[in-house]
Amino acid sequence: MPDINYTDVNMPHSLEAEQSVLGAILVDGRNNMPKVSEKLHVGHFYAKLHSDIFAVMSKMFAAGETIDIVTVLENCLKENVFESSEEGKSYLVKLMESVPSLSSLDSYIKIIEEKNTRRRLIEAARDILANAGEGQEDTERLLQIAEQNIYDIRSDKSTTGLTGIRGIVVEVLNELSDLYTNPGKLKERGMKSGFPSLDKRINGLGNSNWIVIAGRPGMGKTAFAMNMVANAARSTPEKAICVFNMEMPKEQLVSRMISSEGMIPNTLMQTGRFSREQWRNLADAAQVLSSMNIYIDDTAAITADEIKAKLMRVKNLGMVVVDHLQLLSSTRKDFNRVNQVSEMTRALKIMAKELNVPVITLSQFSRSAEKGKEKSQKPLLSDLRDSGTIEQDADVVLFLYRENYYDKSEENKRACECIIAKNRHGETGSIQLVWDGEYTRFTDVEYIHADPRG
């Protein structure tokens, strides 16, 4: 019998459940492998031998190969999982014979999941005890570390550190295989902004992306971001959308959202002089917004770490908006604002990666970007350089530019250009939008005749 190789035999595990799951796949790979791969990954298996066998099976599944004892044995030998053909065949046969009942596969999968969770809880507790005992971290930082560990377990994120490339290759192949067999899924990756031309260029907002929306004052950055929030909440109602706005009270922000949703002039939201029809539209818009899975926090002087701590408690998080970068507070003690902003950009980028959701951050240009430049000149990435590492850390940078804002003689009063100045995953360029300042609303020109709320 080959070496099972346990790291710590006293850690929670079920040799029988792992063997039964692998055996069930060998007995009927066509029906059982999809079910198993949906719930388990290589890291769920505690015995290294079982992890290696499942990695081989997953690679075969991603490649569309038939999974049975003959094909699995051949591939295991290629990957040096077994020392000899006889040893491999003997153990794979044992796995097939160890399955008590194929109908109980879901129960075996659940046992493996629960044992894995318990092991990770023990590892997290050990880390917390070690950090607390050393006394090198302050109490607040210890709480953040502990909270992060538990969050990662709840989110089923691996915290095992270095990962062998075999397991990573398998995960990538699984994803690509899914896209290959279901090409339409490409459109579903990441949340939709609600601006189809933009979504096509950047392939949706993208999980783990840090997206920066920048522009000079008055260009409608907040309106654009909140349009995205409403669009995303409408298209993906099961996901929670969280907004952190340090510039205006949450009531004012929601008032603008009602104006946009109900197509009610924003000026009337200040006076209350609605017609009967406008009041009905307002009531309908309020009802629609009330049903959306949107959360707003208007805490002033909040830090990126505090935002992350709040987000870690949100169930089924889908997207985050921070308005805006320059109003975030820094944990740095020095007075160098460039260093402080650099720290915050890194924190926001890491937040997007760890939470695996798009984090959209609004940003002002630094004052030096305006010097020696015509105000009507379109913004450039270089305008961000005085703001630390925004250009470096961002996955996508969008600039909003309205010619009419500077040149009142411009014929098209509502034209707005959304410049894709940086796109880590694709091409740059620009798309055309229509700006309805009366309703604080943007519309995609390419889809202007389509229902923007559809």
Describe this structure in words.
46% of the residues lie in helices and 12% in strands. By secondary structure, the protein is an alpha/beta fold. Helix 15 (337-355) links the parallel strand 4 and strand 5 (359-363). Helix 1 (15-27) crosses helix 2, helix 3 packs parallel to helix 8 (165-181) and helix 4 crosses helix 5. The N and C termini lie far apart (60 Å).
Percent of residues in beta strands: 5-15%
Give the N-to-C terminal Cα separation.
60 Å
**What's the β-strand tally?**
9
**Main beta-sheet annotation:** 9 strands, mixed
The CATH topology label of the largest domain is Rossmann fold
Strand and helix order: HHHHHHHHHEHEHHHEHEHEHEEEE
Mean pLDDT: 82
Q: Tell me the number of structural domains.
A: 2
Structural class per helix/strand content?
alpha/beta
